[in-house]
Amino acid sequence: MKKIILIIGLLFSMVVAKNLNLKELETNCNNGDMKACFELGKLYYNGKGVIQNYQKSAELYQKACDGGDLFGCNNLGILYERGEGVRQNYQKAAELWKKACDGGDLLGCNNLGTLYAEGKGVKQNYQKASELYQKACDGGEPYSCNLLGRLYYDGKGVKQNYQKAAELYQKACDGGDPYGCVLLGILYEVGEGVRQDYAIAKEYYGKACDLGDQLGCDYYKRLNNR
Predict the structure, then answer these.
(1) Does 138 have pLDDT greater than 60?
(2) pTM of the prediction?
(3) What pLDDT, on a 0 to 100 scale, did the predictor assign at position 226?
(4) Is 102 in contact with 136 (CB distance < 8 Å)?
(5) DSSP secondary structure string, 118-186?
(6) 123 burial level (CB within 10 Å; 0-12, 13-18, 19+)
(7) What pLDDT does 104 receive?
(8) In this model, does residue 7 exceed pLDDT 80?
(9) What angle in degrees, to the nearest 10, is found between the helix axes of 162-174 and 178-190?
(10) Which of 138, 128, 116 is closest to 158 using CA atoms?
């Protein structure tokens, strides 16, 4: 299974107030506004308006997480998974993502599912991964639908079912996940789980390309030149 792009959690924005400046965020964070701490942590991570500092970002995410901000827990987990600003620790990442997931943060569920699928920080368990992806997918996280679809395609943690995989790729694609569109296009091209149809396959490759996926562009050109 390809590595998940966990950076999505770091780019996800729960904007407290778009016009807050750095000093206002710092003041609000110090006064107990955990969303301000989270936003400030993102600024330090991305180096926007401040010198990039992963350690400072980690400290702010920790404060936000301890104060009940689930996005802070999720992003702190990403730093532990990547070893940015903290020593790499998959077990710690798993603990943080479980906390985020249990609180209803879909990215936390998705990321924890990935650890179970890859056996990092937890014992590899595809069934547990599928349950976590299902929870996130049902909540509207398209990439989780993609990942769950791959488990159904491969028969890992669930009974192999190409039709179910196609349905999940469709849901992912409809939600804006370009690789879900690519995978659905592949199923239509080869006729697995759906009736073989090159025109529909090309349509989904084109949609993936429009969403910025280079593989979708390449596959679209290949079918277009048949």
Answers:
(1) yes
(2) 0.88
(3) 80
(4) no
(5) HTSSS---HHHHHHHHHHHHHTT-HHHHHHHHHHHHHTSSS---HHHHHHHHHHHHHTT-HHHHHHHHH
(6) exposed
(7) 96
(8) no
(9) 140
(10) 128
